[in-house]
Structures are given as C-alpha cells and as structure tokens.
Amino acid sequence: MSKGKLLYAQSGGVTAVINTTAAAVISTARQHGIKVYAARNGVIGALREDLIDTAKESASAIRGLAHTPGGAFGSCRFKLKSLDTDRAHYQRLIEVLRAHDIRYLLYNGGNDSADTSLKISQVSRELGYELACIGVPKTVDNDLAVTDCCPGFGSVAKYTATSVLEASLDVASMAESSTKVFVMEVMGRHAGWIAASAGLAQRGEDDPPHIILFPEIAFDQAKFLAKVKATVAKVGWCTVVVSEGLHHADGRFVAEAGSKDAFGHSQLGGVGPAIAALVKDELKMKVHWAVPDYLQRSARHLASQTDHDHAWAVGEQAVHYALAGKHGVMPVIRRTSDAPYRWKIEAAPLTKVANAEKKMPKNYLRRDGYGITQACRRYLEPLIRGEAAPPYGKDGLPSYVKLKNLPVPKKLPAYSL
Amino acid sequence: MSKGKLLYAQSGGVTAVINTTAAAVISTARQHGIKVYAARNGVIGALREDLIDTAKESASAIRGLAHTPGGAFGSCRFKLKSLDTDRAHYQRLIEVLRAHDIRYLLYNGGNDSADTSLKISQVSRELGYELACIGVPKTVDNDLAVTDCCPGFGSVAKYTATSVLEASLDVASMAESSTKVFVMEVMGRHAGWIAASAGLAQRGEDDPPHIILFPEIAFDQAKFLAKVKATVAKVGWCTVVVSEGLHHADGRFVAEAGSKDAFGHSQLGGVGPAIAALVKDELKMKVHWAVPDYLQRSARHLASQTDHDHAWAVGEQAVHYALAGKHGVMPVIRRTSDAPYRWKIEAAPLTKVANAEKKMPKNYLRRDGYGITQACRRYLEPLIRGEAAPPYGKDGLPSYVKLKNLPVPKKLPAYSL
Q1: Site described as Important for catalytic activity, positions (chains A, B) (predicted)?
Q2: With bands split at pLDDT 50, 70 and 90, how would you rate the model's confidence at B257?
Q3: Pick from B256, B276, B292: which is nearest to A295 by CB?
C-alpha cells in the first residue's frame, strides 16, 4: 500500500472530548509523517470534496484542540443508507479519496458511523481501492456495542452528577419557604446512561437525586407522585432527574407535548417542564426545572480525566491500526479491573459494533426503578474520575482554540447531495 | 456593650459563594473569641428560636464550607413587612436575641435583607437592646445599590459566559445539517446583569452570543426574527441568550404562557422554550434550547476567584465592623481601578442600600439592543476572573461539606409565624 494521506471525519452529535480524539489523531499521524485532511462537516464534506488541510494548523493549535469542546471541523447528521440505495454516494466517496490519495479513513462517531465505516470499507474493496477504514468511537449516549464505554460519556456523566449535587444543595437551603421539588432533564433518548450517572451524586438514601426517571421504565404517574410526596414529607424536598426519553406504557414519549405556548406556537418537547407542571398541579408544591441541553455535552470545563484519556487513546490507536494495515476495525476500551480502575485499547471488528446497541443491564436499575444499584455505581464511577480542566485566559474564560480550517484545493467536479 | 454572641442569617436566593461569606464570618469571629450561632432557614429560624451552634463544627468543616454552594444553614423567602404591620415579629426577634445574649446580627442577603436589617436595627434601639446589626451583601442578580457588585454575581456570570461559549461551539459544529439556532434562558427577572454577562463570551461580531434579549428592552418580535434570519444567513447559525424577565411592550412577561402541556396541566414559564418555538415556527429552522435554572447559581465548580474573594472579604469585614461597634451598615465593594482591577471594602449605611435597586446603565447596552458595550465589558470582566475550583474527591465529584447543624437549646416559648 502506498503511504497516502489520512482523512479524519467527525459524525453525529459532538462531545466535550471529540476534539481530544482529533488532536490525538493529528499528533500521532504527524509523528509518523502522515498528512491529515479533515472532512468539513463530516461525511457531507467528504462527498462535496470539501476537505481541510490540518497541516496548516500550528502545533500549539493542535495542543489547544485537545481541550476544546464541539467538533472543530464540523460534524453532521447525515446517514448514508444501504449500499443499494446510496451506491452513488459510496462511489463518489471513493472517488474523492482516490483523487487525494487518501489511504486511511478515520470515522469518528457513534452507531451509525460504525455502520457507515463498514460499508465504505466494503465498497473500497469492491472497487479495488486500497483503503484502511477505521471507526473511532464517540458518543455521549454510551450505547456503542463491544466497547466498555464511549469517549464523551464520562464527561457528560461528570457534568450531570456535579450539577445535580450542586443544584440540590441550593434547593435544600430554600425548601422551608420556597421550592420543594427540582426537576432536571438530561439527554439520552433510548438508553438511560446519562440519567444513571446522576445517581453518582447520591450518597445516602435521603440524598439527591431522590428519583431518576429512566427511559427503560414506562412512566407510572401515580407511583411517581406518591414517591415525590413521600420524599418531601421525609426529607423536606425532592430532586428528580428525568431522561428525555421517558415514555408512557404505550410507547409515546412523555415529551410529546403538542400543546401551544404563549405565541400560539407548538411547544417544543421538554419532559422536564412537563414533569414539573405535573408535580405543581397535582401536589400543589413549588417546583423549579432545568434543561441543560447542549450545555451538558459541551461542558469541557468539567471534563473527566478518564474520559479525556480514553478519547486521546482511541485517536492515537486508530492511527496505529491504520498504519499497521488494519481495516474494518474500531479501537475500543476494554476494562480489565474496576478497583483499581484499569483499561486498555483493543481492536474490535466493525461488523461486531455496527447495528448493535449497548443497553443498560437490568441489574443496574434499582428494584423500585428510581435509582441505580451498586453494580451500576461500580461501572460508572471510574468514568467520571479526575479533572481535565482546560487552561483559562486572563478574561476568566476557558482558552478554546479556533482552527484556521483552510480548504484543500478541489480536483473533481462538484457533486450535489 | 457586653461581648455577646453573633447571629448569622442567610436570606433569599442562595449563591455559589454565600457559604464562603459564612465561612469568613465564622472564622473571623472565632479568631476574636466570639461565639457564632446561625439561624436555621434565615429569619424564620431566628423567629422560631431555631438556632444552630456553629461551635460544634470542626475547623476543617468550616474550611470546606468556604467552597460549598447552597446555603449551609438554610435560607428563606420570608419578608418582614413594615414595623407597623409586623411589629410583633420584630419584637419577638429582639426577644430571641436577648434570650441568647446575641449582640451582633449579620444578615446576609439582597435588597429585602438590607431593608429588614435596617428595621431590626431601629427596633433594637427603640427597645433599648444594644445590637450591632450589619447587612452582608449577596445576590446573583447584582442589583444592590452602593456596592460596585454583589458577591454571587461574578460566579453566575462566569458560568453563563462559559456555558454560552461551550454550547455555541457545539452548535457551530452541527449547524450544516442540524440545529441552526440555540436559545439559552438565564436568570434576572428585573435587571439584565446575568444576560449581559453572556456577552463576555463574544469576541468578534460573528461570535456568539449573537443576540441577547434583555429585560430592559421590550421584545420586538419582527425585529428579533429578522436578526436571527440575518445571523443564520451570515454565520450559518445563531446563539440567543434570553433573560427570564423579557417582556412585551405592554409589560407582560413573555414567559407568561398560560398554555397546557401533555398532561393538560398549565405550562410553567420558560421564556427560553417560548422563544425557541417562535423561531422554529416562523423561520422553520431547527432549534434547541437550554434553561440551566438553579444550575447557574449553584455552580461552585466554576466559581470566579474575584467573586470568591469578594464573598470572603464582606464576611470578614462584617465581623470587624460589628466588633468595632458599627451598626446599621453593610460592607460594600468599591472598585478603585478597572485595569489592573483593584477594589476595597467600605462601610455603607443601610439607609442608602435599602429599597434602592441598581439598574444596568444605559450605556452598557449596545445601540441595537442585542449586546453589550465596551463599557459593560470593562465593568464585568474583572468579576469573572480567576478560577476558585473546589477540591474533588476520588469519586470524581466536588468535595462539598455537610454541616452537623446542631440546635442551640431553646429558652423561650414557641412562636408561630
């Protein structure tokens, strides 16, 4: 195989540490004399031949990239469909790679990306184009198969547990004469990993969060209200964490509001405010609610050191795999010990990762359905350990970098998506 | 004056650093051999004779208190009305103080608290009870008169600017194929200080936040939508920060929804989701919104060092004033220089602080009404400087303390509020 270039692409929702992986990829490739292009806005840029020349970025910019949240080259929500449906796209992709002598494709994303990486790998073989296609794991949802956890999750977990702890101290101090119930909505439409991470803040039975509403368990309104009431009676106040994916027994999302707001416009989701309104109306208690939304997955200022280390390691290893001629694999995290926490990176075949989803084990959910078990805590805790804070400027804000993102001259005719 | 005890009470909404002030009060009083009681849940506890003996807390607990958010002794929303209306309450208060030989009252709160402190001071003189009544400033709203800024504000400002910066990096990376507009709601019902602090994240014209909606300026829907549209056309995406106090020209809050949600319950406020729905329906753009609510004022993990230093200094000085026989005063922050930032603590008469409100100067708002001016930046920036991070435990969470809060034996008959 010729020693060609490496193309790095980000895909799907970004995380607080996806750029840490990007920085690791670029640094490692530089050490091996491999030129790295990045696809602008993920696979969309790859198809449009909109490539970024990372060689134009200074070493200090790449160091800064490692502690900057968001996706520095742009990511996208664009799913390549089956080979039959989207064959033209796959062929165009290989054409672009060939035009720029790109021999290594590192695709940094979640479930869909593993699947896309696999298909690109197949098409390249069919077309006789030598390409090492490596999937690189990333997702705050922590739902990738095979890997013990996903880079990006540990930091949102640390943010979530810390935020619940802090806001609950606020609620506790005001409960005598003000807010009695605090509701915080967290991400995770299909799996309750982020919701579960809030449980790390709970030390004793009466400590917050008192109730976690998981997407794995159908919402039981009467049982929930009874639990809130009992908690306020016993503790004086109550913190509730609810997953955006909470649903009714018939499968409808609780967040599917369909109501109108002050402007007469359709109300946007928000299971947090819906649960808060329920408590207020049914229990006549003063309620506050929070929806951190993107704040939770971009909070690089509160990144976990473990998560940072994972994110760096998968980027570094992905380059090593590519250079070693591996293809159709993904560097995954294998835990070898809980206490002390030990882990290593292994190559997993993309066929095993793609189209599978890691669910929360049943024994991670407490029997009453409102909290996490000791087994879950043992799994989650190492993932939020350590503080990988960014440097701060004299202006009091984190010093995040902005790359130049200079384009690589195009060689092919335009292609419309 | 006999060398009696000191009573410390927290009042109103708590902040990330009100306990820093509490720790300063207790440490300083201990150095002078003065015993400190704390009122449980603020003035409610003082009236109920529900007092906490802080002498039972270890030195290390008090050190930990300095970096723990929330109000460690409990705060309250309970406003003592005029002397005529609530004379019985004021008299009871003096009775409680007298029963425990409390000769120094430090009341840590916002506008209402300054007013209450003043009245207590008057009643004590009328009743011939020697009492040094000192107000201690605190409020995330930054609306206290006389003082240059309020302890608690700098940290929420740092949290707000950092969060807007981080979430915007997320939005920027996804905008090509996903969310185009991000709306973040911040606190501040009457003054736009917190909203203004978001402006610190903006470096250049095209940097976020692109639009800040202040409570000082009536909401102009058509102009706002045009600005969002123009921003997305130019930048590719748009970050909007909106104050919970945003109102229409006729004075109605934009957050006054009055609509029904999925449960058929009245929807709780939320100007953030309302603005998001407006953009989605009128401009047909994908929108996300965040409402950090209590997270913003309890985020001790992101406290500003300046804010921490102010909070400590007002607590320390309040004790010095009390011991020096001052009464009816509040230690306030006076800025003596912007660059380098220099400040000192001065005693201001409570008569000047009570019942006044510090508004945003007109020249702090940009002419188009959607951002802050250089003058505003010069004022705000020093307040978010420096990182006063708490220590973290091996579990990856901030090490916040829980005090014992042991009660002082009661000496008086019960009193119902």
Answers
A1: 138
A2: low
A3: B292
pLDDT score at A267: 47
Q: Average pLDDT, stretch B51-66?
A: 98
CATH code for the part of the protein at B153-297: 3.40.50.460
Q: Confirm whether A5-141+300-355 and A153-298 share one CATH topology.
A: yes
CA pseudo-torsion sign A251, A255, A257, A258: negative
> Rounded to the nearest 5 degrees, what angle is found at the Cα of B59, between the Cα atoms of B53 and B64?
95
Asked if B206 has any chain A CB less than 8 Å from its own CB, the reply is no
Residues 301-340 on A with a CB inside 8 Å of B are 301-302, 304, 306
Question: Which residue of the set B112, B115, B141, B148 is catalytic?
Answer: B141
Residue B13 in marked binding region: yes
Interval B284-336: pLDDT, tens = 999 999 999 999 999 999 999 999 999 999 999 999 999 999 989 999 999 99
Q: H helices of B199-238, where?
A: 221-235
Calculate what percentage of chain B has a pLDDT beyond 70.
96
- For residue A209, cis peptide bond before it (omega within 30 degrees of 0): yes
Could you tell me the end-to-end alpha-carbon distance of chain A, in angstroms, rounded to an integer?
Answer: 31
d(CA A239, CA A113): 36
Inter-chain contact A261–B257, Cβ cutoff 8 Å? yes
What is the residue extent of each domain of chain B?
5-139+300-355, 153-297
Q: Which of A239, A290, A253 is nearest to B269 (CA)?
A: A290
Mutate to test the interface with A, among B288, B291, B399 (most CBs of A within 10 A): B291
Inter-CA distances, A75 with A46, A70, A155, B376, Å:
11, 9, 19, 35
Nearest CA in chain A to B78: A177
Side chain identity, residue A133: C
Residues constituting chain A: 417
Half-sphere exposure of A215 (CA within 13 A, CB side): 21
ipTM over 0.85: yes
Rounded to 5°, angle at Cα A57 from B159 and A15? 40
Q: Are A177 and B78 in contact (CB under 8 A)?
A: yes
pLDDT at A199: 98
* DSSP annotation of B279: H
B352, with CB counted inside 10 A (0-12, 13-18, 19+), is middle
From residue A223, alpha-carbon distances to A213, A226, A228, A229, B165 in Å are 12, 5, 9, 10, 40
CATH for B5-139+300-355 is 3.40.50.450
Q: Which of B316, B377, B383 is nearest to B343 (CA)?
A: B383
User: pLDDT by residue (tens digit) across B336-389?
Assistant: 999 999 999 999 999 999 988 899 999 999 999 999 999 999 999 999 999 999
Q: How far is the C-alpha of B259 from the C-alpha of A265, rounded, in Å?
A: 10
pLDDT of residue B267: 46
* Residue tagged active-site, from A112, A141, A148, A309: A141
Q: Does B216 count as an annotated binding residue?
A: no
Identify whether the C-beta of residue A261 lies closer than 8 Å to the C-beta of residue A267.
yes
Residues of chain A with C-beta less than 8 angstroms from the C-beta of B276: 268
Residue B355: predicted pLDDT: 80
Chain B contact for A417 (CB, 8 A cutoff): no
Could you tell me which CATH class the domain A153-298 is placed in?
Answer: alpha beta
Top-tier CATH class for A5-141+300-355: alpha beta
pLDDT band, residue B264 (cuts 50/70/90): low
A141 is catalytic: yes
Q: For chain A, list residues with pLDDT below 50.
A: 1, 259-262, 266-267
Asked if B389 and A389 come within 8 Å (Cβ–Cβ), the reply is: yes
Q: Who contacts A370 (Cβ-Cβ below 8 Å, separation ≥6)?
A: A210, A211, A212, A213, A227
C-beta atoms of B165 and A10 within 8 A: no
Q: Is B267 helix (H, G, I), strand (E, B) or coil?
A: coil
